[in-house]
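Q: Can someone sanity-check these two? First one:
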Amino acid sequence: MIYLDNASTSSPKAPGLADFVKDFIDNHCFNINRGLYNGSFGSGEMVFETREMLCDFFGGDKSRNVVFTSGVTQSLNMVTKGILQPGDHVVTSTMEHNAVYRPLTWLEQHGVNVHYAHCLESGEVCVDDIERLIKLHNPKMVVMTHASNVCGAIMPVAEIGKLCKRYGVLYILDSAQSAGVLDIKMDRDNIDAVCFTGHKGLLGLPGIGGIVFNNKTAMMTQPINHGGTGSFSHLADMPDVMPDRFEAGTMNLPGIASLYHSLQYINKVGIDKIFEKEKALQKRFEDGIKNFDNVKQVANKAKNRCAVTALDFTLVDHGEAAFRLDDEFEIMTRSGLHCSPLAHKTLGTFPQGVVRFSFGYENTFDEIDQALEAIKTIR
C-alpha cells in the first residue's frame, strides 16, 4: 500500500500517536473546567500546554488566544461570520478551497461584498490585484489560503501581510495545507488570525483544529457558538475572557491530546527537514513524469510550491486512473475537483479536474518509483 493523498489527510500520523491517545483515553480523559479533582486538573494542564505549543508554533502573542475547534472549516466560519457584517467588503483569491469559498458565498447572500483577487494559471495570486481591490473597496478583511490544495502553489504571505498592515485590513490565513510544513509566524508576517487543522501537516487526529488570534481580532470576533464553558456559569451570555469566549461545550480532548503529541514530534524533527524531504520526493516524481506522453502536469510553474502535484491524464478518465492506481497497484491518490472549483477554473481544469499526488514525510523514494511505473502502465 502506497499512500499519496497527504493533502487530504496525513498518513501515517506522528509515530506513537495511537498509543499516546489510547493511554490518554484510558487513564486521563476527564473534562476540564468542570471538576475539582486531580484527573480534571491533569487534563486541563495538557490542554494548557498544547495551547502554549501552538502559540509558539504560529508566532502568536498569548496562549489564551488559541481556540480549539473541530477543524479549519469551522475555524474559518467562526472568523468570517463572526466579523463580517452586511455592507462590509472582503477580499479573497480565485484559488480558494470551499472552506473559504462557501462561507463567503453565504455571507455574500446576506449582504457582504466579496471580491476575488486574480490568480495566474500557475496558481499564484497577483499581489498587485489584492492592493487594487483594497484601494478600491476598503475591505475589512483579506482571507485566503497559504498554499493550494490542488497544485501546491504557495502564496506570498509576507507580502500580503505587509499590504494588509499598510492599509489597516485584517489578514486571516487558511493554513490547511501549510501548517506543519511551512514556517508561519503571525508576529513576523502581520497575520491577525491563523486557522489550522490538526489532521494534515500537524499529523494529529481528524476532528481537531483551531484558531490562533491576536488580541484585536479576538475581541472584534463575535462568537457564533453559545453554551457551557465551565466558567462564569451564572452569566446568560458567553464570557468575554479568552479562550472561553469561543469554546462552548465539551472539547475534543483526545484530539487535543493528539496535537500535544504530534507537535512535540514535529518540533523534534523540524519543519525545514520535513519540507525538504517532501520536496525531494516531489522532484523525483515530477522528473519521472516529464518522460511520459499522455500525462501532463498542471500548474507546475509557481515560484514556490508545496509537495502537491496535479496530473492530467489526456487519454484516460481521471476517476478511472485513480481507481486503477488503487485497484491494480495499491496506490492511493485523489481525483476530481478537490473541494476547490474556483482553483480548477483558475487552472483551466474545470470541470474534469485532475489526479492529485501529495507526498508526506514518511513516503520513500522507492514508493515514488513504483508510482511512476504504475502511471507508465495506465496512461
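And here is the second, same format, sequence then C-alpha cells:
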Amino acid sequence: MPVQATMSSDAADLIEIFSSIQGEGVLIGHRQVFIRFMGCNLSCDYCDTNSGNDASKCRIELTPGRLDFEELANPVPMTAVFNLLHRWGRGWPSIHHSISLTGGEPLLHVDHLHRWLPELREILPIHLETNGVLHFALSRVIKDIDHVSMDIKLPSSSGETGLWEDHREFLETAAATDVSVKIVVNSSTEHWEIQRAAEIIAGVSSDIPFIIQPETAENLSLNISSFGLLELQEIASALVDDVRVIPQTHRFIGLL
C-alpha cells in the first residue's frame, strides 16, 4: 500500500526520487538527486523511462543509493520532497553535486517548478533534463536553473518530426544558463540531421557542448557502428567547437 503523505495543494505527480550517478551529458560521473516527473509531450522510439509504473504511486528511496524504496501516493506534496532532501543533506552531507529534474518532461509541471525551484536551489544546484521543446515554460523558470541538458530530437532515431524551430527557440532561451545539447543517434541517423542540429547550436553559440549519444540496446550493445559515430562527430565538429561522443554509462555499471 502506498504511504499517505500530508496532502497539499502544491503537489506534483512524480514517478520516483532516488540518488545515483549521472550517466549522460556534461555532468557525467557526478552523484545527483534525481526527481523524475510523470508525463511527456513526446513519444520517442528509444525512450527508456518505465511507462508501466502505477501512476497513482511515486517510489521514494529512503537511503540515498540503497534502493530501499517506499511508495507515496500521487500527487506528492512539496513538503514531502523537501523533508526527504533535507534529511539526506543532514545524514549524507556533500555526496550530491546537484538535483536533476527529469522525466518524462519536467517542464510540463512548470507551475509547480515555479514554486519549488527557489527552495530546491537552496539545497543543491538545479540540473534540468528536458526534451528541449517547451521554450515558453522554460522562460518562466530559467532564473532558478543552473544547468540545462536539452535534447534535439532527430526524426531518424526518435520518430518525432517538425521540432527544429521549437528546439532553436528553446536553445536561445536556455543559453541564459549553463546549457548543453544531446542527440541520440543510431544506424538510421542521416548526415543532414547532424548538420542541421549543429547549425542550430552554432547559430546560438559554437561554444555550447554538443553530446552525441549512441542508442543503447537492451543487451547493452550500441545501435550504431564505431565508424558511424566518428563520421557524425566529424560533421558536427565543422560547426561546433565542443563535440563529444558519450554513451549511457549508468546502464553499463548497473545503476538507475
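A (reply): Looked at the second one. The mean pLDDT is 93. The first strand starts at residue 11 and ends at 12.
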